[in-house]
Amino acid sequence: MKKQERKYENERMMSKNKSPWAWVPTLYFAEGIPYVVVMMVSVIMYKRFGLSNTQVALFSSLIGFVWVFKGIWSPFVDLFRTKRWWILTTQLLLGAGLGGIALLIPAPFYLQATLVLFILLAFSSATHDIAADGYYMLELDSSQQSFFVGIRSTFYRFASILGQGILIMLAGFLEKSTGNIKMAWSITFFALAGIFLLLFIYHRFILPQPLADKAATDNSTKNIMSEFGNTFASFFEKKQILVAIAFMLLYRFGEAFLVKVSSLFMLDPREIGGLGLSTAEVGFVYGTVGVIALTLGGIVGGIAVSRKGLKFWLLPMALSITLPHLVYVYLSYSQPTDLFTINSAVAIEQFGYGFGFTAYMLYLIYFSEGQHKTAHYAICTAFMAASMSLPGMAAGWLQEYLGYEHFFIFIMFCSITTWLLIPFLKIDKHFGKKAG
Predict the structure, then answer these.
(1) 111-157 pLDDT, tens per residue?
(2) pLDDT at residue 1, as a whole number
């Protein structure tokens, strides 16, 4: 027994000397990949397999509901085992799930089988998010948390570039070289599974073991659930709760429809209103140009708020997240063939989204302030997930009913809900503004 305790203590001492640079970037890179795969890559994959826009949007949105409910099982991540154990276990499960999808894509019942695995991937990914964020707060002190918040966001974006860009371009290349669409995507998912296996092995040896990372064995399940109930109830007792929920659900109303259809619009043939791009071209448009523009928009938004505060920038950011949708109205009517025009349009829309999304995330932080801040923020992110999944379920059907041109005009009308909410929000004029 003493030998095991000594070994455990030696591991803790070794992990204490490990720099956050050794694990923060890779941990949040690992956090970003499954979300992008489940919510974005699956859309393009199913489209290439011949599913209709209605089916693609509905299925991917239903899977996304897992993130809506992750707050329900979050107390159990604290109650059982350590955060480090949950991180490693879910990474192993994610790798196995991605490998399972790769194996089942060629099967005749691939649709049912892969949908089940995507749901399990979403569940594992959401659990990984809970554990990783909790681990981050346990292992790093407040100054380190502030310093590395930009680093973790950057590597989460790198995961988007890998998922939406490199892997989709790889699938597109394999589609052409093999002439077999399903084989191309099967190989792509095997590559993803290999990446997660490497991440699991790396984190098994690199992740520190914080002394505070312990299972809550001293609390009964009854007490934990009782406290969770009180925390949940106190959220709905906050001032302006109805306005806040409306804002969380409707600020990105137009974007929720757009995000499910935009890549389908790029892939669909020109005869039915699409742009007729290849899989690889769509990977480049959204996975590189789009992600870079999105990241730059977020950086500029953060700088802007730090100088003038959230209250000052709220309306301009609401306009920024909605008005650039006009580029899709232009693309649907003009159907340009040159990639420069298409990439430029997507860059404008994604930069505007990144800039405008800053206000949304900061408002969630602002509304979560006070007692139970962490739990209340988790509830806010559940509403955030619902705001994308609920409209997304109908996006494909609505597009097929209206056609691309009228669908993108409809999205512009959705912007009205965003603008109407702004005057009702009460925000401290100094919130978000850099001191001094």
Answers:
(1) 999 999 999 999 999 889 888 877 877 787 766 765 666 577 778 87
(2) 47
SS3 track for the chain: CHHHHHHHHHHHHHHHCCCHHHCHHHHHHHHHHHHHHHHHHHHHHHHHCCCCHHHHHHHHHHHHHHHHCHHHHHHHHHHCCCHHHHHHHHHHHHHHHHHHHHHHCCCCCHHHHHHHHHHHHHHHHHHHHHHHHHHHHHHCCHHHHHHHHHHHHHHHHHHHHHHHHHHHHHHHHHHHHHCCHHHHHHHHHHHHHHHHHHHHHHHHHHCCCCCCCCCCCCCCHHHHHHHHHHHHHHHCCCCCHHHHHHHHHHCCHHHHHHHHHHHHHHHCCHHHCCCCCCHHHHHHHHHHHHHHHHHHHHHHHHHHHHHHCHHHHHHHHHHHHHHHHHHHHHHHHHCCCCHHHHHHHHHHHHHHHHHHHHHHHHHHHHHHCCCCHHHHHHHHHHHHHHHHHHHHHHHHHHHHHHCHHHHHHHHHHHHHHHHHHHHHCCCCCCCCCCCC
- Tokens representing 391? 């409209």
283: confidence class by pLDDT, cuts 50, 70, 90: confident
When pLDDT is averaged across residues 193-221 and rounded to a whole number, the result is 80
> Which amino acid would we find at residue 81?
R
Q: What is the mean pLDDT of residues 357-364?
A: 84
Match 């371009």 to its residue by tokens.
169
Task: Go through the domains of the chain in sequence order and give each one's CATH number.
Answer: 18-208 (1.20.1250.20), 238-436 (1.20.1250.20)
pLDDT band at 215 (very low <50, low <70, confident <90, very high): low
Per-residue model confidence (pLDDT) at position 432: 66
Which is more confident, 421 or 334? 334
Q: What distance in Å separates the CA atoms of residue 292 and residue 349, rounded to the nearest whole number?
A: 12
User: pTM of the predicted model, to two decimals?
Assistant: 0.78
